Amino acid sequence: MPEPHAYSKSIRPKGEALVWFTGMGLGVGILLIAGLLAVILKNGLSMFWPDTIYQVELVEGATAGPTNGKDFAGAIALERYKRLQEEGVRLTREFQFFTGNKDAYGQMYHFVDSDQILRDASGKPRFTPADGILQLERIEFGDALGYPVAIDLADGSSITEPDALRSTLFETIEASNERLKAYTKIERQQIGRINSRMESIRLEQRALRDELGAAAAESSDRMQKLTAQREALQLKYNDLAAEARALRDRRAEDSVRLRLPSGEERRIGFDNITQAHFPNEMSLPDKVGFFFRQIWRFVSEDPREANTEGGIFPAIFGTFVMTLLMSIAVMPFGVVAAIYLREYASQGVIVRAVRISVNNLAGVPSIVYGVFGLGFFVYVLGGSIDELFFSKRLPTATFGTGGILWASLTLALMTVPVVIVATEEALSAVPRGMREAALACGASKWQTIQRIVLPASAPGILTGLILAMARGAGEVAPLMLVGVVKLAPTLPLDGAFPFFHLDRKFMHLGFHIYDLAFQSPDSDAAKPMVFATTLLLIVLVIVLNLSAITLRNHLRRKYKGDTF
Questions:
Q1: Is residue 137 located within the same domain as residue 163?
Q2: pTM, entire model
Q3: In whole angstroms, what is the distance from residue 556 CA to residue 561 CA?
């Protein structure tokens, strides 16, 4: 009979240390993900919160700041320590200030050592809130910070009384923004439709000249009718262009004069102003309201100033439409391929080779799919479509260049292995007895698959779609070759026939992040936009995935009684 200690040693569970080790790994992974999301959330949302503007006084003889030693005003964007080699190695604090006024200072962000800032009685750098300072959000040159001096109106009058100046400021900005919306609508919608129609007439006239010859075409009734239509459209175009020009010129007639914190005075036209607020005078409810208004403007407006200002609505729309088209394209092909491999194909060497190839395709770098999409979809398939259906427009390419259709198909090709593998696993999980029961009742094999197997495996199929959407929505490298652009002048969906334009280039949140982070002319100004756009991309992917997960759970509950 074994000794008691030997017996207790023999029943000790094996692998317990590995269980704790794997649990620790899971915990570390969760902490890393939570930390990453917290950093993105903090830096992304801070872009929309109004910061306090401080008046910064520099010591005598200082050379720092936006004006080489003059006092200035700005919001503290960053505080960090840095090493100084002077008089031995020592640490000193360094502040980064958002000073705005890019047209006056060259940059909107400036670093200043704490040694060059006047200190208070306790020895800390002295920052005094700049009372009455105005922050203007501009279309060009970023935000402007200064003290309002006067408003010069189109009738030649100037308003300098403080209360009247403030009320007139906000009223004039609101009226100017309404004019901006009016002439933007005229240019993008009405003039856009006229340009599209005039281009169609021009192509038809060119085709008529090629068919009949220049002399015969000019004298034909069809050419005269087309010419008359084009002249009528040109008259409408001239009237609309004059109306838009008048609205634009009216916005430029009014201006506001600002005294910058460094002393000089600047005149800013209201045609360059989109919003104004006094950040140091806002209460907490005012700041909360401003915060949510800024978020709405961010997701609903177009970008400007090299994408470092304004909103990102075209990128949101492009990402959503591309992911939707990709899902529509990948699901039928992936599911049909998986059904054939699992239900119809004879399980042998060839089928095993196909499965191995599908699994290997899932590991191919995404840029390879981009090169394939450029070569096959754009040059071969798109070029053939242009020759067959859009020969009048050649040599200007229609589908023979990058567009949202080819980008969606390229990503569908890249994610189809994920859908195939997930669908096969879902099909194999359906109990064999369900198939045999359907066949015993007289159903054919296809009826069994259609009525029994596919509904029961729908949750697993949707799992594959969720994985494909998550990967496709965040891809950037292949899109750079097949249709994504830095700034798209028009959306793929508009009011012009055929309404949904699959040939148009588009913006994408992932590429927008890359462009801001690595291609922006002002990296400091682009940094808040990088975090805000990253946060929005994560939110969009989560929303798309949650929608698919909700549908999957609904189907799982519906067929739970049949599959277990």
A1: no
A2: 0.85
A3: 9
